[in-house]
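User: Hey, quick favor. My workstation is busy. Could you predict this chain's structure for me?
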Amino acid sequence: MNLSKANLQQSVDSETVRSVTKLSLVAVWLVVMLFLLTLIPGVDRVVPQTPVTLAAVIGAIITLVLVGILGYLAPKAAALTKMSLDGPQELVEHAAGAVYWLIILVAVLVAHSGLAGALLPLFDGFTWVYDVLFMLAAVPVLVVIGARLYGLLDPRSELVAEKVTGNSR
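Assistant: No problem, here it is.
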């Protein structure tokens, strides 16, 4: 891994960095705004004719925006990972893939948590279905992450062996 400042500045597209940074800051801003929203009187009231509160509806909308941002950030973060890492192509590809799928997993987990307030009351008596649906979305992503991380083992162990022994293939 060669992460010197000069190499990063040459290899990383400034527009990609700007975009990733701005979207990350927007995500943090949304979370702060959601917290502040919960402090406003009356948002904990139930929306008429539903078992859902106004705060849960607004929280679900913000959650969907956050999930969209994470989905948009995933390929950009993977591209930045590829540009930032210096090493065997196989190692770089697996690392970038792991970053991509980790962000997708975070998006699934954010969706599960953030949509719960608005959707769980609608699952009256069948809340386990909500969890199963998100589990079915998360498990394949987790399998891909595991495969990508496993794919890092051989190239990484070869690099460590080369560094320790001074021998290269």
